[in-house]
C-alpha cells in the first residue's frame, strides 16, 4: 500500500523553464547598462543554451556569457549573486500543483521532495512556492551530500518518514535519475513527461499533475 508520495522539484513541481525565462528577462533589465550591446533575446538564448536545463551551475554560465559577449564592468560573481538571491522571486508552479497537494493531503498521504541542487538555493525555491506548508520531508542533494540516482537518498527519505521503500512512490521528470533510480531503490515510480515522448511503453506516466491521483488507483 502506498503511504507516501515523493516528488522531484525542477520540471516536476516547479516549472523551471518558465521560471528561468522570467528571471533572465528581469536580470537583463537590471543590468541593462552593461548589457545594452546584446539583445535580450540573444542574452536569454545563450544563457539557456549554456545552462543545459540547470545541469551547469551558474558560475560557469556567467563566465562564458561574459567571455562570449565581451561584457565589461560586470563580474560573474555579481551576476551569480543576483541569481542566487533573486531567482526564487520568479518561481512558477506547474498547473494543478496546489489542488493536487491539497487532495493528496486530504487522502492522508505523507509528502516529500527529493531534489538535486544547491542548498539553501533549492529550499528558497521550495518556500517561494509555499510547498513547505504541504511537505513532510525535504532532501536536497548538496545538504545531504548525496544525490539522485544514488539509491541512498531514496532510502534516507523513506527512513525519515518511517516507511518502507515499497510504501513510497516517487514522481519525477527524468527517466534515469528519477523514475529508474527510484525503482532501483525499491520504490514505486511514475514519470512526469511534460508532454514529451515516453522512453519506454511500459513506463507509467503523467503529462500533468492533475493526472496523478487517478493513476494512483492502478499502482
UniProtKB/TrEMBL annotation:
- Name the InterPro entries on file: HAD-like_hydrolase (IPR051400), HAD-like_sf (IPR036412), HAD-SF_hydro_IA (IPR006439), HAD_2 (IPR041492), HAD_sf (IPR023214)
The Gene Ontology terms for molecular function here are: metal ion binding; phosphatase activity
Query: Which branch of life, at top level?
Result: Bacteria
Q: Name one GO biological process term.
A: small molecule metabolic process
Q: Which Pfam families match?
A: HAD_2
* Co-factor(s): Mg(2+)
* Key words of the record: Hydrolase, Magnesium, Metal-binding
Q: Spell out the protein name for this chain.
A: HAD family hydrolase
Biological source species: Staphylococcus kloosii
Amino acid at each position: 500500500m502506498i503511504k507516501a508520495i515523493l516528488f522531484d522539484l525542477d520540471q516536476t513541481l516547479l516549472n523551471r523553464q518558465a521560471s528561468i525565462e522570467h528571471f533572465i528577462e528581469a536580470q537583463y533589465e537590471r543590468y541593462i547598462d552593461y548589457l545594452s550591446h546584446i539583445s535580450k533575446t540573444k542574452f536569454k538564448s545563450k544563457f539557456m543554451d549554456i545552462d543545459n536545463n540547470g545541469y551547469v551551475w551558474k558560475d560557469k554560465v556567467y563566465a562564458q556569457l561574459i567571455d562570449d559577449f565581451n561584457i565589461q564592468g560586470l563580474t560573474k560573481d555579481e551576476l551569480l549573486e543576483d541569481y542566487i538571491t533573486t531567482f526564487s522571486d520568479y518561481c512558477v508552479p506547474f498547473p494543478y500543483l496546489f489542488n493536487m497537494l491539497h487532495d493528496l493531503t486530504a487522502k492522508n498521504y505523507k509528502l516529500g521532495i527529493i531534489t538535486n541542487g544547491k542548498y539553501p538555493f533549492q529550499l528558497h525555491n521550495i518556500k517561494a512556492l509555499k510547498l513547505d506548508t504541504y511537505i513532510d520531508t525535504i532532501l536536497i542533494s548538496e545538504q545531504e551530500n548525496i544525490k539522485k540516482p544514488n539509491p541512498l537518498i531514496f532510502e534516507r527519505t523513506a527512513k525519515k518518514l518511517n516507511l518502507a521503500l515499497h510504501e513510497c512512490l516517487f514522481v519525477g521528470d527524468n527517466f534515469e535519475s528519477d523514475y529508474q533510480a527510484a525503482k532501483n531503490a525499491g520504490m514505486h515510480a511514475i514519470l512526469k513527461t511534460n508532454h514529451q515522448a515516453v522512453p519506454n511503453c511500459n513506463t507509467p506516466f503523467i503529462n500533468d499533475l492533475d493526472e496523478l491521483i487517478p493513476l494512483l488507483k492502478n499502482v
